[in-house]
Design goal:
23 strands, 6-stranded antiparallel beta sheet, 5 domains, 678 residues, Beta-Lactamase, alpha+beta, 19 helices, Rossmann fold
Length: 678
């Protein structure tokens, strides 16, 4: 067993490699000192600073070629023996020719010979003239161990400081980690703000005999020459004894400080602040302490700057996010107002892109495109929108006549996007009025031209005929004149209704009696056409409060239509009845015939002004299309309503409902009040 110290450099990838090598060496060397080399940097440092007896190199290194490592060792330490560890057994003679002093495989047989080979190589290389004393070697090895421990502590401390981006936590971690690299009694961080510094973090001030914490107010930099010197030079400052330093600024509450070391926190040439360490022992700090503190301060400054940048970025992002939220809220409010406007308008609004494709439509237009219109009409609307959008700069407009609806479209260009806004207005009522006007003019022209022609003809006949035939011509002239008077009367009736000038002279009416009187006057006309006119009174003789002349006009219009449209041999029945609806009592008049009936498609329009059915127009039946419209208006003026049911070839039934009046006494009182009021 060899008790002499053996210093070995083991060049491998990781310290855990080749434990079998160390195991075999420990069997022959009690005092074995091993320095692991795992990079080119640590190798260069060891060759410069350390002394050793032997170098063992792994052949397959991940970070350098083993031959290059051999050359580095032989260049610096020419006489130092070098052993190559390989996975195969090479020829020893060849190994020496390549510059290796020995080559061993990692097999158990070769490793068993390692202590013998190492002992022989060390005995050959070490002599009293070129070997260091045991004490010096131990000192150097101890120094290297301390440097290694400091590097590891600095790396761990820097990693801990840089692992967080919160400025407050970074400052706290700096003080937590600085004690891993520097020993002292109290620590603090000063940060510069303008021309002053503030102690923002401190540690260790709660120990006995010390003030609880350093002053926290802003302190002008000009009061501290040592801080100004560190800002100017960028180098740390060591004060072994504060009592002997001329630039030291003493404080009554901090008189325990006897030695000081400080380092600037700098990024480039910009000083962020200072990292300060105090001790109650004079001579506690030296140049090596200053270098260590400066190394840590560099990492601390980078961490502070990163945290500040992150905070600024976070604040900027928060401001941007707030602005985005604010702008988004504004846009949402604008869109809400726009949506409200678009949804509240009765017109359709369609927005297209530059290609004329629909990108948005308000609810009215959406309903037309997807629900109301038939598929062919919706496609026609889309086509028209596309065509108008293509020339929107000209602000074109058109009328689109579809089934059941007439639409007016007007396009306006959107300069920014190249699209267009197409306003769609429902002009069905205007077109209906226009068609009504045209039909009215046509019908009125016909209605007036025909009797005028007849009047003119019979006037000429009156001149030429014998006196005995004049009465017949006069009857015809009188009939045509009556037709003209009736037409003009109906038109004037509507004028009064529209102007609100139609007066109703109400009085109690017994519908049974009153209806029978009217039917008696029309029974002869029905019999002349071969029709049967039947009257069915109500059992209870209902009464209404109405204008008898207006109600008579209503009944006469309906009876005249029934007689006109019921062929010979047909039946017309007039019935008086009572009913309950809408939580009140009603008296009803029903006129039912077995005439030609009304087509289903015409039923929704028969109460429209100037509407005449296809049969009436084809057969040139006299009339202006105002009779049923007047019926509806007069009944509604009395607070009632009128309905119709009809089937072609079967007949038509009109039902009039009027509010039923009270008992006879009430009718008398009400009649008297109406007379007084009138």
């Amino acid at each position: 067993m060899n008790d002499r110290p053996l210093y070995v450099l083991l060049v491998v990838d990781t310290p855990t490699e080749h434990e079998q090598v160390l195991l075999h060496l420990h069997r022959n060397f009690d005092d074995l000192r091993v320095r692991y080399i795992t990079s080119s940097v640590t190798l260069a440092h060891a060759l410069e600073q350390l002394d050793f007896h032997l170098v063992i190199i792994k052949q397959q290194l991940s970070w350098e070629d083993s031959t290059a490592v051999l050359q580095m060792v032989k260049t610096r330490r020419r006489n130092c023996p070098v052993v190559l560890l390989t996975s195969r057994q090479d020829d020893p003679a060849r190994a020496r020719g390549d510059g290796w002093d020995a080559t061993l495989s990692t097999s158990l047989a070769d490793l068993a010979r390692l202590p013998e080979i190492v002992a022989g190589l060390v005995d050959e290389s070490v002599s009293p003239a070129n070997s260091l004393s045991l004490q010096e070697a131990q000192r150097l090895f101890q120094a290297e161990q301390e440097r290694r421990e400091f590097a590891e502590a600095l790396q761990a401390a820097a990693a801990a400081v840089s692992s967080n981006l919160n400025p407050n936590k970074v400052l706290s971690r700096i003080l937590e980690q600085v004690e891993r690299v520097i020993t002292g009694d109290a620590f603090n961080i000063m940060l510069i703000k303008g021309n002053a510094v503030t102690i923002t973090r401190w540690r260790g001030y709660k120990r006995p005999g010390m003030s609880k914490h350093p002053p926290q107010q802003e302190i002008p930099l000009t009061r501290y020459p040592n801080l100004l010197k560190m800002m100017r030079t960028g180098q740390p400052i060591v004060i072994p004894n504060t009592l002997l330093d001329a630039d030291w600024v003493s404080s009554v509450s901090q008189e325990w400080r006897r030695s000081y070391v400080g380092a600037p926190l700098q990024i480039g040439k910009r000083t962020l602040g200072f990292l300060n360490v105090n001790s109650s022992q004079p001579g506690k700090f030296g140049p090596q302490t200053a270098r260590r503190l400066k190394a840590f301060a560099n990492h601390a400054a980078a961490a502070i700057e990163n945290a500040r940048l992150y905070q600024a970025l976070h604040e900027h992002a928060a401001q941007l996010e707030a602005r985005v939220r604010e702008r988004t809220a504004e846009l949402e409010a604008q869109y809400a107002r726009l949506a409200q406007v678009l949804s509240s308008t009765s017109d359709g609004i369609i927005v297209t892109d530059a290609e004329g494709q629909i990108v948005r439509a308000n609810p009215v237009a959406e309903t037309w495109l997807t629900q109301t219109l038939q598929i062919e009409d919706a496609a026609q609307l889309q086509k028209t929108v596309y065509e108008l959008a293509g020339k929107a700069v000209e602000q074109p407009e058109t009328i689109l006549e579809l089934r059941g609806v007439d639409l007016q479209l007007r396009a306006t260009a959107i300069p920014e996007s190249g699209g267009a806004v197409v306003a769609v207005h429902d002009v069905s009522h205007l077109k209906a009025l226009d068609r009504m006007k045209s039909r009215f003019i046509s019908d009125i022209s016909h209605e007036m031209r025909t009797p005028l022609t007849t009047i003119k003809l019979h006037s000429q006949l009156l001149r030429n005929q014998l006196p005995g035939k004049q009465n017949r011509h006069l009857d015809i002239v009188e009939m045509e004149v009556d037709r003209q008077a009736t037409l003009i009367k109906e038109i004037l009736e509507f004028a009064k209704i529209d102007a609100g000038h139609l007066e109703l002279h109400r009085r109690p009416i017994d519908l049974n009696s009153w209806g029978e009187i009217i039917l008696t006057s029309y029974r002869l006309r029905a019999e002349e056409k071969g029709l049967t006119l039947t009257f069915t009174p109500a059992p209870s003789a209902p009464c209404v409060l109405a204008d008898p002349h207006k109600i008579q006009q209503v009944l006469i219009n309906l009876l005249a239509n029934a007689i006109r449209h019921t062929p010979e041999g047909g039946n017309i029945t007039v019935s008086i009845a009572e009913s309950q609806a809408q939580e009140r009592a009603w008296a009803t008049i029903q006129i039912a015939d077995t005439g030609v009936g009304i087509p289903a498609e015409e039923l929704p329009h028969i109460f429209e002004r100037f509407f005449r059915g296809a049969e009436s127009r084809e057969n040139q039946t006299p009339g202006a299309g105002l009779g049923l419209a007047i019926v509806k208006e007069l009944v509604e003026l009395h607070g009632g309503w009128v309905t119709v049911k009809s089937q072609v070839g079967v007949g038509t039934t009109f039902t009039i409902a009027l509010p039923r009046a009270g008992n006879p006494k009430e009718l008398q009182v009400m009649s008297y009040k109406l007379k007084v009021a009138s």
